Amino acid sequence: MFSGIIAAVGHITEITARHDGAATVRLTIDAGKLDLADVSVGDSIACSGVCLTVVEQQGRCFFVDVSPESLACTAGLAEPGAINLEKALRLGDRLGGHLVSGHVDGIGVVLRFDPVGDNRLLQIRAPAGLARYIARKGSITVDGVSLTTNSVDGATFTINLIPHTLAATTLGRLQPGRRVNLEIDLIARYCERLLSADSEP
């Protein structure tokens, strides 16, 4: 589990195809300012909202394997570039954002990224199937960042990004047309399951 509070911006520096029968790729990730002192092989790190397992470490870099399915269902992992990093929560850690599983529910598309004073108005169109889970003033994760929606219109929603978020994450580099990883609030997912279970035979 994660909180959606980004600890550092890292960089995918290399993508290596592996031909071990699983057709996975291995990403080399420069951890940037992320503290790796307590990270071991087998630990989970959210990479722009995608929970991945550390398979190797070398200095300031760690390595993860990504399946074709994960590459097809997410954005930002198929090419070198900046990514948001967060280590898994430990019991007793502060939950500054909201509970995040690191399992991407769908890919959104940035429609607007407009300056409003020092802030930015971010408008995203989510896949139609996710619209019912997105609520005004509710929680959503965008590229691993825990955010609060300002308004919702069908599958389109807006978020106000403050200067700190713009500086401490990759979201300051967004532009219209950019694809982003979305994870809906776990509470919405479980509420739907509870309600639908009442109508099952």
CATH architecture of the largest domain: Beta Barrel
Q: Could you name the CATH class of the largest domain?
A: Mainly Beta
CATH topology of the largest domain: Elongation Factor Tu (Ef-tu), domain 3
Across the major sheet, the strand order is: 1-2-5-4-3-6
Sheet with the most strands, sense and barrel status = 6 strands, antiparallel, barrel
Order of SSEs, N→C? EEEEEHEEEEEEHEH
Distance between the termini: 33 Å
> Mean pLDDT across all residues, rounded?
93
Helix share, percent: 10-25%
Q: In what range is the share of β-strand residues? A: 35-45%
Which runs of at least 5 residues are low in confidence (pLDDT < 50)?
none
Overall domain count: 2
Shape type = globular
Rg computed from alpha carbons, rounded to a whole number of angstroms: 17 Å
- Estimated structural class: mainly beta
Number of helices: 3
Number of strands: 12
